[in-house]
Amino acid sequence: MSYPFRATDLPTWADPSVPASSLDPQGASRRTFLRLGMAGGLALATGAHAATAAASGRPGDPQLAWLVGDHHVHTRYSHDAKYDFDQLAAKGAELGLDWMVFTEHSNHGHRDKGAAAEHAEIMAARARNPRQLIFQGLEWYIPAAEHGTVFAAPGPYEVELLREFERRWDAKLNGWDADLPENEQRAVQALRWLAAQRSNGYVDDLLVLANHPSRLGIDSPHELRAWRDAARGVVIGMEGAPGAQGDADPAWVAYRGSTGAQRGEYNNAPRPDSFAGYPIESYRTFGGFDWMTATVGGMWDAMLAEGTLFSITSNSDNHRTIWDTWRDGDMPPGQNFDSLGWKPSPVDTGTPQPGSDFWPGEFSRTHVGVTRHGYLDVMDGLRRGRAWVDHGHLVDALDVRLVGDRGGRGNGTTLGGRLTVERGTSVELVVKVRSAHRPNPHGVLPRLAHLDVIRGTVTGPSTNRDSWRAPETRVVEQIDTSTRSGTYQLRIPLGRITESCYIRLRGSDGNRHGAGFLGASIDPAGPLQHADNDGDPWADTWLYTNPIYVDVR
């Protein structure tokens, strides 16, 4: 299958033909980290250059370049959003994004007219922004559950697949919202249908992620497991942190006069269709992250402890940016969203408008490790779990490797990978950090205060599909990084490995932490909830990595 968007020009910061003197500070920092990490300097491959991916020749995973992106962005083709593609692409480029996914809400107008019209605009946006990887996706209303990101690799049938999926399987369009077993089964059938479209070659690739999974408490543990099992390699994980991170910024709250505001718009309570096994605390974010991710030994760890990768991401879920002055465009007389399939371009009022989001790349970032620059390569990196996420531009760059002995480290095993060792082998974690060296978009120079090593035992598939606990997972070490700056390396011995396990990292600016949700013995310095209307996101920033598995033989 031939298509013009298989790979594109290198991002500006990675293109050796672009002088370093012309890069902004973020681009210069990323290029420096890439040169330090990749043998032979810059060697990202594109279809045009047919270059070979950088590698050192040593055993283990390849050296990676980290592309920054956002898989959950809305435009005026969603009924509750307002921006043009060019506005979002320009903002993304300004804020250092290499890739983004436009995920419009399912809607009759979108299905009938909007998706096709949107596709024409995306094709034009790709042509105008050749250094950005711009995906078309959909925010799926999952039957009997929350929302999900669905997106395909660019190709001749990408929009046809999305429209057909929306028509066949969307809960909102088909009236399948109720918490009924038959609707849960429809979600599973929908995912199997998607997986079949990938396996039969109708599209080159497809990915699905569960969005804001704890917001309403309606994504039960058995549903998350069912989605993963129905389409492994397609359903790859969930949002570790939701968008709408500006909702409880005190200055914004004071300006708009709101009450009960929470980061992520997580200001809900259990409903009749919520899973009864979730505690009341799960309806709030912790350090801006979803309770499932933020709780050490909680739902995310329960999935990981089964021995199967389940990744996390972070994103803007951009609809309406705080302090933005644009309002919705004026509908033509006699028209509405359903009749048009979109909204007209927004109008600048000069006065701040309602909103709770940040621009793509402004606050939340997902970093994906690749050896080539292209659409399929970003999707492959996400599928492999080669990803870490941060808020507030907490660090410029991060590379994590697990090595099995002191004599033959090689490149080691990176995020999402599996290191196989003999029982009793000593294992070491090698972490390379490039600290933030410029103010973030809020004007604050971030500081990484600590990195936490989290370790969990692999116990195999859970016999209780509604369990959200991983009792053998805990923080095993905290490393003080508050005095470190520039590019530095940490070597963290993990001792002799006697049973299969996984290792993941978490870090923060050190401003707000305390005993984790499951107690200080499990997590002595974890993220916390904040009071209503008092959740300054820029003063409470965290990063999380996906895990690395250790398989004992």
UniProtKB/TrEMBL annotation:
Name of one Pfam family that matches: PHP
Sequence ranges assigned to domain Polymerase/histidinol phosphatase N-terminal in this UniProt record: 69-144
Segment forming the signal sequence: none
InterPro entries: PHP_dom (IPR004013), Pol/His_phosphatase_N (IPR003141), Pol/histidinol_Pase-like (IPR016195), TAT_signal (IPR006311)
Superkingdom of origin organism: Bacteria
Name by which UniProt lists this protein: PHP domain-containing protein
Organism: Promicromonospora aerolata
